[in-house]
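Hi W.,

Here's what went into the run:
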Amino acid sequence: MALLNLRFWRFLPILVLLVVSCEDADDFNNVIEQVSCSDGIQNGDETGVDCGGSCPQCIDGLDFSGVYVQQDIAGRPAINSVFNISGPLQDAFNRAAVSSRGAQDVISGSSNLTFPQVFKDNIDLYFVGYSLNEAPVSFQTNVLGFDALGFAEFLATTDALQLAADGPTTYRSSDLWFTGRKLSDDVMDTTLLLLYGGAEGDRFDGVNGPMLISDGVGLGNRVFLTDFPYLEAPLTE
Amino acid sequence: MSKIYSLIPILSLAVLWVLLSGSEQGDGPSVAYTSADIADFYAFRGAQADKTVFVVTLQSPLSVGTVSQEARFDPDVMIEFNIDNDGDFKEDLVIQAIPRDSIMYFFGPSAVAPENQGISSEINVNDLMGSVQISDIAQTYIAELDSISLFAGPRRDPFFFDQERFSLIQNGTVAPEGFNSGVEAVDAFAQSNVLTVAITLPTELLGVAPSHALNDYTDFNLPNAYNVWVSTKRKY
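Here's what came out:
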């Protein structure tokens, strides 16, 4: 269904070109011929059937046929590259529907792996890596209240950007979590905080252990536009 | 200790793949550095509060100069913005974008029937939203259609991260030292471009928003929120 068909401008031709045709001036059998962008005939100022003029432009002659199959996917940032480090499993993640990555869904091509368990193992690996030359440490419940497996399950099974219909949109700002993702949001610091920061967000903060909850870089000299397309012009040198 | 040693090959593997990745670019050897490789996805409220903006970045990184000038969208790769209205993480609405010659065509928002949800799609040719001339390094084209704006073309990469240091932390080499700060922290993406597709449209066109996903897992009381994601789909 084309929701945009409801946009008012498409009905302008109806108002402008409303034709009342009286087959017989003596009876009341009036026929009202309405022009719209979805009536299946070329009328009004259309240059093709339901296209051109005040309707969307015509795409006749262009081939959009065929079946298109998922190659890559992105919801929350850095999920597949931080929490799913094996190349073949990254491929499997990229090809899986969002709704098919739960604890009951065996990863395609594997015998018994699930994404929540794989993510949990990956979380543990960060702490194994840290512990190679140090006293062993492990993941601690994070600021969202997740233990390692719970965090893994949440990430794997709800991998989309949550986007608030009303109100501020931010990946994280104080107590507001996951209501969108702005260009300027420091999403990697948020990811690191949830991975390393512990329940209070002050674990591995450079005082309580090394700095692991912020990568130390921000926007730098990027300047985003205040209106569409918001993205900065491409660099030329 | 034997357990730790047994993990070292896995950690080495981690280094390999993380070196290829920023946020999402390069993740997955099959799609890395192809025309379907998604780098990042953004969704936010527009400058007008009743508008929503979707941005996807692709084919990262594009170095400045010839590589950026010659970067092209692939006519066999359809970019699909997915919106879940009921919290089941299946797309209820999609907005599709695909190039033909020097034009990016946009279709939707189109309702997706349950039997058509998932990893395979056809293009909703009856739901043409509009089109925009694809921009290049020198020239920016924006289509302003009533309440919708469209853009496609190269821009500076908005993503920032000290990727190299992260890789060394991940494999344990410098984890006990941690990240750098100041000038020693290096943003791997500061001097790169990416191909981008951006759209802004009235939020009301996205329909109803379900309960926030995090509310089901925590004590947070976050506002209703769509679940949105972007995918690339290649013609077969």
